[in-house]
Every structure is written in C-alpha cells, then in structure tokens.
Amino acid sequence: MSVAYLQALPPAQAAVALVLCTAACTVSAVIPTTPLNFAAGIICGGLVRGSLLFNAGATLGSLINFVLGRRCFRTWAQEKLRGSPLLSALEGAIAKRSAFMIALARLSPVFPFAVLGYVLGATKVKATTFTWATFVGLIPGVTLYTFIGMSAAAAAAAGDGDDAGWSNYISIGAGVIATVVI
Q1: What is the pLDDT of residues 88-135, one digit of tens each?
Q2: 29: left (phi > 0), else alpha (psi -120 to 50), else beta?
Q3: If 3 and its partner were Cys, which of 39, 73, 144, 175 is the partner (CB 3.0–4.6 Å)?
C-alpha cells in the first residue's frame, strides 16, 4: 500500500488505513514502519493527528506482539530473556518499575521494537501497563519522525531557490541529527 494511495482516501479512511498498516508492519517485524511514520502527518493532515494515529497503530501492533509473546511464543520469549544480558537486565528493572522501564525502552533504539513486545509478554507486567507505557514512550520518536516527514514534503513542494525551502532543509537536517543523537 503506497503513501499516494493513502493520501487519496477520504481522511477518516486514510486514518484507519494508517493505523492498520502500521499495526500490521509492527507485528510482522519484517516491514519497516519508518516510511509510514514519515508520511503520517501528510496522510492525516497534521503533526498532532498524524503522530497520534501512527502511535496508535504502533501501540496496537506492539500489544499484539505482547499477547503473542504471552500466549504463543512464551518459551521462545523466555529463552530470549535468559540469553540476552540486556533483556535480562530490563526484565529485572521492569519487575521494580514496569511502566517507567517500558517507556524508557520504547525511547531507546537499542531494543528491537517487535522483539521487545514479544519478550515483555513473557514477563509479569500487566497488558494495560504495557499498552499505556508503550504509547507514552513512543510519543517523542513518533512526533519527531512525523515532523521530519512533513518538513521533507514542504521542502519538496517549496521548489528550488525559495528561502522557505532552505529553512525546511535546515529543519530536516536538524531532525536527522537529533534522531542520530537520540
């Protein structure tokens, strides 16, 4: 499903399609969601709406991973926990401060997004805590990526030689640098 197709849909249908596509890609862990995140603001008509809808899809996909980790892949997830010092340390910290640690893990690019959902399903954390902490932890990154996508689209639309176009390129560059630093 292409971004152009999503843009051509009526706003409500585009929003639902974005959430479902994001959730499906998040669960699969094979298809990266970054292009959808970049396009979310353009598809849904703004930074706040695009960020919230993309975040809802990513959180839904992550919750599905969590449930699969808890119900279907528990043995595999527990092996991952035992086999990785990083994930084992995260499990110990989650036992003490689950919501805080989940939100921090979602902020960090060190933890693979889909695998984290599966593995946290093998812990004792409640599904409700996992869901809202994931949603909160994703807000900064999702908002940044949505902003970068909107800035890139504005820069492309501004044309060459336009002063507004240069400010958009500077914004994009600053966003990319911030992403790398984070």
Answers
A1: 777 777 878 899 989 988 988 777 888 888 888 888 899 999 999 999
A2: left
A3: 39
